[in-house]
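Purpose: get a first structural picture of the assembly so the mutagenesis plan has something to point at.
Setup: two entries, given in the order below. No constraints added.
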Amino acid sequence: MSAAREYDCIIIGAGAAGLTAAIYAARRTLKTVVLTKDLGGQASIAGLVENYPGLGKETGLNIMERFKKQAEEYGAEIVYREVNQIGKKGDQFFVKTADNEFSSKVIILAFGLTPRDLNVPGESEFKNKGVSYCSTCDGPLFKDKTVAVVGGGNSALDSAELLSKIAKQVYLIHRGDEFRGEKIVLSKLKERDNVLMLMNTEIAEISGGGIVKAIKVINNQTSEAMEIKCDGVFVEVGYIAKTEIVKDLVERNERNQIKINSNCETSCPGVFAAGDVTDITYKQIVISAGEGAKAALQAYKFLQHKAGKTVGVDWGGKN
Amino acid sequence: MAGIEINDSSFEAEVLKSDKLVLVDIWAEWCTPCKIMLPVMEELVKDNEGKAVKIAKMNIDENQSTTQKYNVMSIPTFLFFKNGEVVKQSIGAQSKEELQKVIDENI
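Result (structure tokens, whole complex):
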């Protein structure tokens, strides 16, 4: 392995938070690299985004491509590599990928969340053989087929809404007695003839032969079990933070999210975090973008302070 | 453009009867993760110039008989063929190094 490639700032993750941090860091002329598994994170698979101010209706992927272009215009480098290890030696940080090592003075963690599994028999066996975690990705492959959507939040409702336009029949399976998602999507769904909502219902098993053929569901009030024949199961039961990689570096909360203060500082000086991977309440593209900007500005301030310079607030006057 | 474009009718000659390892990227216009993989695939083609591997793509909407035969139900799906057999199947957006590793292990 060659010597570590040196940067001022390493950003991990290229979603709304990571790419905005890259724009801000690069514009402060920090030598910046973004290490990421893919472009855009969750936002890029969101389908149509209708709540990003100023952009009207735009696909998540298009928005993320614009973020990326802007970051690259100011000199940030984007490297498509999965990070295997993050460590600290003295006041330098080291990040390893399978084929390279990178070092930096500051680091910004912005690698978001990962879809939660159902943890039922058959789920892993039929993953990508009918079991899917992304309706905008796999939905069109179920044209005129029967599918089940599991979950009760916004992503489950959006997924059922999209699939109702493609599939012959959609079963929406929710363990609770009411949906947590947006009312506007729910009322659209109630008008669709091919959507059947099963409340207080939990999925117990996914079965088939090579590909998904059926699911077994149980009503959690009556304990009544039922088999539903279907070709696809879309899992939309939320997201979890996978942060084991930084467990020795920064403090995390009980949900494994990275703890930050209001300036995106973690418990480790020089390590900042932004967006969905942190313990902030709301997981939205516009919020992650703002958090990414904060993390980069605070990282810049940290570096200036180390160099013996002070940086005041950015809204006027000396302080 | 990343690699060669194949379809149901050229599949046998280009893939099954190829004397090289063939990586087939199964994709569609509407598939976001497939688009995320475009720059990765372009780099992969460049990195593997002159090596005993053929990198190809196949549109799932236009080539259903082949893709159904291989039970493709999630895209992007990357099928690696050697001597007419699937030696590895890999699904979803992923890093270049993961795909490169499979190539290196099989050529």
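The radius of gyration of chain A is 22 Å.
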